[in-house]
Amino acid sequence: MHPILVEIGSFALRSYGLMAALGFLAGVGIAMLNRKYAKMTTDQLNTLCFFSILIGIAGARLFYVVQYWHQFRGHLPDVVRIDKGGLVYYGGFLLVLAFIYLYCRKNKLSVLRVMDVCAPGLALGHAFGRVGCFLNGCCFGKPGGGAFGSLYPAGSEAFMKYGHVALHPVQLYEAVMNLALFPLLFLLTRKEGKGISTATYLILYGLIRFTDEFFRGDHSAPFMLGMTRAQVIGLVLIPIGAALLIYRIRQNKNESQIEPIEG
């Protein structure tokens, strides 16, 4: 664990905050490269990304605080200390989806095409964030991992739960899978029709998170039917993505067969 990378006097550069910031910058940069596919201006994309980041952080933190409220009783100032870690990805994801929908409706943009543009950067930025989780020591795994297992220092949350036992580096598992997902989404956004990249993200990330959760060790108890909250949400996203993919493939095919009328 390296929660603090640099410490000078009262200033401390935390690994989680740094990786989250790099993830946001990377995500925005990728979206900027693809913005023309959604017919967005630079100002529109900058506005969308700026508010999406704020809303995403707020939503992710809110879901974390609600889920782990016992950690914040008597320590209310820690609620805003996101530099120490403690964000629930799906919380931010769902609130940002709602914001994107409203923003696109207001600015007469295609919701699905804007989401296509955002999807590759979302996967890339999430990979950075998971590396930050690993360095911070949060979102740890269950005992195991073989030669790749990670040991946590005395006093850490993982140590208090499992002791001096190697744990699955689940944060890195998910980071690698998001990195693999990123180029696929990037190409689909550029090469395929509306909604294909978005649908692919919903399906594959749902599968990634559902699988990765089996190796997570930071959950106190199952949420539903022996599954965690993230697994339940993942199982919901997969069929939604599959239905969207089938629908958009058919729609895109029909639209491509319509020839423009000359005259």
Short description:
This protein has 263 residues and is mainly α.
Characterization of the model:
By secondary structure, this protein is mostly helical. The chain has one domain. It is built from eight helices and two strands. The protein has helices spanning 15-34, 42-67, 89-107, 111-136, 157-162, 170-191, 196-212, 229-257; strands at 4-8, 11-14. The protein has a two-stranded antiparallel ribbon with strand order 1-2. The model has no long low-confidence stretch (mean pLDDT 91).
Map the helices and strands.
Elements: E1 4-8, E2 11-14, H1 15-34, H2 42-67, H3 89-107, H4 111-136, H5 157-162, H6 170-191, H7 196-212, H8 229-257
Antiparallel strand pairs: 1-2
Helix pairs in contact: 1-2, 1-4, 2-3, 4-6, 4-7, 6-7, 7-8
Structural class, judged by helices and strands? Answer: mainly alpha
Number of helices: 8
For the secondary structure, the number of strands is 2
Radius of gyration: 20 Å
Low-confidence regions = none
Cα(first) to Cα(last) distance is 68 Å
Task: Quote the beta fraction.
Answer: under 5%
What overall form do the CA principal axes indicate? globular
- Main sheet: strand order: 1-2
| Major sheet summary line | 2 strands, antiparallel
The ordered H/E elements are EEHHHHHHHH
Number of domains: 1
- Average per-residue pLDDT, rounded, comes to 91
Helix share, percent: 55-70%
